[in-house]
Amino acid sequence: MPKSKVRKKTDAPVRTSTTAPSRALAPSPGWYPIVMAVVLVLGLAYLVTYYLTQSGTNPHIPVMGDIGAWNFAVGFGIMLLGLVMAVRWR
């Protein structure tokens, strides 16, 4: 069986960038992870408070009783804000 011919590899042209070099992202300030943790804990505390204050149809906190099941959206929304902050943390 005949051997296949080996092709000579040509050197690839060197690509030069015409755009300016990208700026390195600066690290987050020192207060950022503290605020992020506080926001996450606030969302969790809101949901826990909602669960603990529910006693039938007469909740102990009037605002939570007025919005009903929307308390889940509020609590998870606060926690989602903390998650977005966590993703952007450098």
What does this molecule look like?
Helix content is 52%, strand content 0%. With 90 residues, it is mainly alpha-helical. Helix 1 runs antiparallel to helix 3.
How do the strands and helices of this protein lay out in sequence?
Elements: H1 32-53, H2 62-67, H3 70-88
Helix pairs in contact: 1-3
Strand content: under 5%
State the end-to-end distance: 60 Å
List how many beta strands DSSP finds: 0
Radius of gyration: 28 Å
* Low-pLDDT sequence parts: none
SS summary, helix count: 3
The average pLDDT is 86
Q: Which structural category fits the helices and strands?
A: mainly alpha
Keywords for this entry:
single chain; 90 residues; mainly alpha; 3 helices; 52% helix
